[in-house]
Amino acid sequence: MPLILRFFVPLFLGNLFQQFYSMVDSIVVGKFVGVDALAGVGATGAFNFLILGFAMGICGGFGIMFGQRFGAKDYKGMRNYIANAYYLTIVISLILTPTTMLLCRKILLLMNTPTQILEEAYNYIIVILAGIAVSMFYNIAASVLRSIGDSKTPLFALIGASILNILLDLLFVIVFHMGTFGAGAATVISQAVSGFVCMLYMYRKYDVLKFKQGEMKIDTTKMIYLLGTGIPMALQFSITAVGTIIIQSAVNGLGTVAVAAMTAGSKISMLFNGALEMIGMSMATFCSQNKGAREYGRIRMGVRAGFMIMIMACIVIITVIQLLGHQVALLFIDESETQIMKYILLYLDYNSYFFPMLGALFVLRNALQGMGYSVIAMSAGVSELIGRAAVAVLLVGRLGFEGACLANPAAWLMADLILIISYVYAVKRMNQQELLLVK
Fold first, then answer.
1. Residue 436's pLDDT is what?
2. Crossing angle of helices 355-370 and 45-71, rounded to 10°
3. Cα(286)–Cα(130) distance, rounded to whole angstroms?
4. pTM of this structure
5. Which of 13, 89, 244, 431 has most Cβ atoms within 10 angstroms of its Cβ?
6. How far apart are CA 424 and CA 296, in angstroms?
7. 338-352 and 407-438 helices, crossing angle to 10°
């Protein structure tokens, strides 16, 4: 547990600052441009997660291979995997960027984005999509560092980038009156800086990451292995995002007030559940390194420790949300917006009490990914999609915004059922492998 905690705490703080990126965008446009601008940024949230979640997922999946080679002390093989991962991220960026930018407006219309906030939404998301390569640049650098056990460097890079993001938001939105476009530009520039800092530092600091002659050659076999772990993880993010888009589309049909409330509520919720997500990421690194070293007993111990940390985190998170939820919501809206405030607090109540289910999802899913069961983890994403789609179809029309608040708990429950069964199966497989090692 101490080892996992030392790795987790910088991850958690880094995620906190990363969430602060988009949160600051929403706060600045909500306070200084208006509710329509806040709703416009929020209306793109699911679409944003669909694309950037894919980028983050595939880079995280590549990191599984780095971690396994590092755990096996195959440093030459690890460096060649990293080089081929760089080549793949370049190709993926070149495909995703123009495609998503061309389809951007059509997707917003398909999502039933209200007419009065359509331009605000488009102006924000188009610049985010133009920066897909920047997002992948940061995520692949952070993935390399985490795979060798360094979760502090991405944290320091994100702290600096978050401060820069705040300054640029204030400059672009308040001084230059660039609206939601300015908020998006501030995010992209800040993430570019954090990626550059990570990349520069890791090649100066770690000899194990410095390429030697012949280690940067293209290896199609390694690319296939990388895609074998990266694509299922990326699709798991994207499948989850599709379910979120379905819910977002249903909420868009409820009007600007509901969209603004969902925007603020989801930003606040993500700020807190980032702790749970980072516990999961710690599990992915821990399990991948120990899988490479064939330390199966340590994997089981690590997952138990991860659950204990998760439960303690949930107790703290739920307490803070119940005590300070109203005050945090005032960062996004004025006290006079009583209906929006009512919806925000309703959203936070429904989500926070079910955070233990979300925590279990992150721990088990990332542990399974680290152990090499990426396809199983992806199937959990399909379960989440089914849960959210069922709520959108059956409950939002009948219960309105309250029905939308049930989407996440339903999705988490569906995924947990798959993951628990899969983890029990994986443990049995590990027990069999341990017996073979003993013999």
1. 64
2. 40
3. 34
4. 0.72
5. 244
6. 14
7. 30
